[in-house]
């Protein structure tokens, strides 16, 4: 189910990227609106708080990754997504404190939290963030499947 969710979300982003003629900010806004609808539909069918938090963490990972894959480098666009992801991960008490995925997300949370809203990360930093978040997401899904 986790893989299907990710593929569905990736398909939405790719479809929007290929068919839309609007600028990058409009794409991000449209993607965020679509994500909100997807999240509400996921949470509506969730019966327990722990399942709701799992869905929320997955949603936050995918949102942050898609934002970075759309080559967003502005701190004021990146930080809210990373902050939301970090908060969701911290709310999951069953994750070990030394969980590598949490450490990598915290690294980006700490880095972006001290930057000004008008700052921009470099292309190398963006690529590293994608790699770190992808690894964290994969480690998270592996943890769930244990």
- Using DSSP, what is the number of strands? 0
Number of helical regions: 6
CA distance, first residue to last residue: 15 Å
Report the radius of gyration as a whole number of Å. 15 Å
Residue-averaged pLDDT: 78
The geometry reads as globular
Low-confidence segments: 1-21
Strand content: under 5%
The SSE order reads HHHHHH
Helix share of residues? over 70%
Based on secondary structure, the structural category is mainly alpha
Largest sheet descriptor: none
Q: Care to describe what's here?
A:
By secondary structure, the chain is mostly helical.
Short description:
The chain is mainly alpha-helical. Helix content is 77%, strand content 0%. The N terminus is likely disordered.
Task: Give a quick set of tags describing it.
mainly alpha, globular, disordered N terminus, 0% strand, 146 residues, single chain
Chart the SSEs and their pairings.
Layout: H1 2-19, H2 24-44, H3 49-69, H4 75-90, H5 100-113, H6 123-144
Helix pairs in contact: 1-2, 2-3, 3-4, 3-6, 4-5, 5-6
